[in-house]
Amino acid sequence: MSSSTSQAVFVLGGARSGKSRFAESLIVDTRLERHYVATGRAWDDEMRERIAQHRADRGDLWRTHEEPLDLVAQLAAVDAEGRAILVDCLTLWVTNLMMAERDMAAEFAALTEFLPKARSRLVLVSNEVGLGIVPENRMARAFRDHAGRLHQMVAAESAEVYFIAAGLPLKMKG
Fold it and tell me: Rounded to two decimals, what is the model's pTM?
């Protein structure tokens, strides 16, 4: 376990578990300026619709920043006292990094090194993908393994960690 002074909150859950809604609720009740860092890419019409729906659901109180690869640089650019930053989601970021053949260990280390330095309230969302069967292909197994390693690193550096199932949060740390 890390001895960092990070105030980050990490929210994990399965697909459609309610994790994004819960993560937003951790910020909505604050007086902080709200920033949303979206890592997803609109590869097809269905993803474009999802992104548009998420944006509409959040409303005008959020400033949205789309950054599929250089997450730490985007966080550093937005980070300031009096702000809250919600990152949704780390597993999409992992996918983007893999597709761009980036150095996963270096990217993950940069993120976890940034967390204790952040001046903003950070809430990071990710899909827990390690609870199912072993994926049948090499790339899917590599994705699951990368996500699992990243989740362990982020959880170690976070002040609070929640697991969401059926819309219900289980506080795991903090």
Answer: 0.92
